[in-house]
Design a protein that fits this description.
Structural class: mainly alpha
Shape: elongated
Strand content: under 5%
Number of helices: 7
Largest sheet: 2 strands, antiparallel
Oligomer: single chain
Order of helices and strands: HHHHHHHEE
Amino acid sequence: MAGKYEYWLSQEGQVLLQGWARDGLTDEQIAKNMCISPSTLYEWKKKYSEISESLKEGKEIADYLVENALFKNALEGNTTAQIFWLKNRKRDKWRDNPEPEMKEEKEEGIVIELTRNGEKI
Protein backbone atom coordinates (compact mmCIF):
# COMPACT_ATOMS: atom_id res chain seq x y z
CA MET A 1 0.00 0.00 0.00
CA ALA A 2 2.59 2.57 1.07
CA GLY A 3 4.13 4.76 -1.55
CA LYS A 4 2.45 3.26 -4.60
CA TYR A 5 0.30 5.74 -6.46
CA GLU A 6 -1.83 2.94 -7.95
CA TYR A 7 -3.26 2.12 -4.53
CA TRP A 8 -4.32 5.74 -4.01
CA LEU A 9 -6.23 5.63 -7.30
CA SER A 10 -8.28 2.68 -6.04
CA GLN A 11 -11.61 3.17 -4.28
CA GLU A 12 -10.12 2.01 -0.96
CA GLY A 13 -7.22 4.47 -1.25
CA GLN A 14 -9.51 7.34 -2.18
CA VAL A 15 -11.76 6.66 0.80
CA LEU A 16 -8.71 6.87 3.08
CA LEU A 17 -7.58 10.12 1.48
CA GLN A 18 -11.04 11.64 1.86
CA GLY A 19 -11.23 10.53 5.47
CA TRP A 20 -7.86 12.03 6.37
CA ALA A 21 -8.76 15.29 4.66
CA ARG A 22 -12.18 15.32 6.36
CA ASP A 23 -10.45 14.78 9.72
CA GLY A 24 -8.50 17.99 9.15
CA LEU A 25 -5.07 16.55 8.37
CA THR A 26 -2.74 18.78 6.37
CA ASP A 27 -1.27 17.62 3.07
CA GLU A 28 2.03 17.08 4.87
CA GLN A 29 0.37 14.81 7.44
CA ILE A 30 -1.50 12.95 4.71
CA ALA A 31 1.75 12.42 2.81
CA LYS A 32 3.30 10.98 5.98
CA ASN A 33 0.34 8.59 6.34
CA MET A 34 0.86 7.57 2.72
CA CYS A 35 4.59 6.98 3.41
CA ILE A 36 5.62 9.50 0.76
CA SER A 37 7.16 12.95 0.85
CA PRO A 38 4.96 16.03 0.63
CA SER A 39 6.56 16.90 -2.71
CA THR A 40 5.54 13.51 -4.09
CA LEU A 41 1.96 14.11 -2.93
CA TYR A 42 1.96 17.50 -4.68
CA GLU A 43 3.23 15.85 -7.88
CA TRP A 44 0.59 13.13 -7.65
CA LYS A 45 -2.14 15.71 -7.06
CA LYS A 46 -1.12 17.44 -10.29
CA LYS A 47 -0.72 14.21 -12.25
CA TYR A 48 -3.69 12.18 -10.95
CA SER A 49 -6.97 14.04 -10.69
CA GLU A 50 -8.46 11.20 -8.63
CA ILE A 51 -6.05 11.92 -5.77
CA SER A 52 -6.58 15.66 -5.97
CA GLU A 53 -10.37 15.29 -6.10
CA SER A 54 -10.46 12.86 -3.15
CA LEU A 55 -8.55 15.32 -0.98
CA LYS A 56 -10.66 18.24 -2.17
CA GLU A 57 -13.93 16.42 -1.44
CA GLY A 58 -12.78 15.42 2.04
CA LYS A 59 -11.75 18.98 2.87
CA GLU A 60 -15.04 20.36 1.53
CA ILE A 61 -17.03 18.06 3.81
CA ALA A 62 -15.04 19.23 6.83
CA ASP A 63 -15.44 22.87 5.81
CA TYR A 64 -19.23 22.49 5.49
CA LEU A 65 -19.45 20.86 8.91
CA VAL A 66 -17.50 23.71 10.50
CA GLU A 67 -19.51 26.34 8.63
CA ASN A 68 -22.77 24.77 9.82
CA ALA A 69 -21.52 24.60 13.41
CA LEU A 70 -20.41 28.24 13.27
CA PHE A 71 -23.77 29.30 11.86
CA LYS A 72 -25.66 27.33 14.52
CA ASN A 73 -23.52 28.85 17.29
CA ALA A 74 -24.07 32.34 15.91
CA LEU A 75 -27.84 31.84 15.84
CA GLU A 76 -27.78 30.51 19.40
CA GLY A 77 -26.26 33.77 20.63
CA ASN A 78 -22.54 32.97 20.66
CA THR A 79 -21.19 36.49 20.20
CA THR A 80 -17.75 35.32 19.10
CA ALA A 81 -19.35 33.28 16.32
CA GLN A 82 -21.55 36.22 15.41
CA ILE A 83 -18.60 38.61 15.18
CA PHE A 84 -16.57 36.12 13.14
CA TRP A 85 -19.51 35.56 10.80
CA LEU A 86 -20.16 39.26 10.28
CA LYS A 87 -16.49 40.18 9.82
CA ASN A 88 -16.18 37.59 7.08
CA ARG A 89 -19.58 37.78 5.44
CA LYS A 90 -20.16 41.54 5.75
CA ARG A 91 -16.58 42.82 5.54
CA ASP A 92 -17.54 46.23 4.22
CA LYS A 93 -19.55 46.98 7.37
CA TRP A 94 -17.98 44.87 10.11
CA ARG A 95 -14.22 44.68 9.63
CA ASP A 96 -12.04 46.27 12.29
CA ASN A 97 -10.91 49.16 10.10
CA PRO A 98 -13.67 49.95 7.63
CA GLU A 99 -12.82 51.88 4.52
CA PRO A 100 -13.91 55.49 4.76
CA GLU A 101 -16.96 56.24 2.68
CA MET A 102 -16.09 58.01 -0.50
CA LYS A 103 -18.60 60.66 -1.49
CA GLU A 104 -18.94 61.36 -5.12
CA GLU A 105 -18.45 64.98 -5.79
CA LYS A 106 -19.19 66.64 -9.06
CA GLU A 107 -16.43 68.83 -10.26
CA GLU A 108 -17.60 72.31 -11.00
CA GLY A 109 -16.03 74.00 -13.93
CA ILE A 110 -13.87 76.86 -12.83
CA VAL A 111 -13.08 79.59 -15.27
CA ILE A 112 -10.01 81.64 -14.60
CA GLU A 113 -9.63 84.83 -16.51
CA LEU A 114 -6.12 86.03 -16.94
CA THR A 115 -5.66 89.72 -17.19
CA ARG A 116 -2.75 92.05 -17.60
CA ASN A 117 -3.18 95.65 -16.81
CA GLY A 118 -6.94 95.14 -16.64
CA GLU A 119 -7.16 93.50 -20.07
CA LYS A 120 -7.99 89.87 -20.76
CA ILE A 121 -5.10 87.88 -22.06
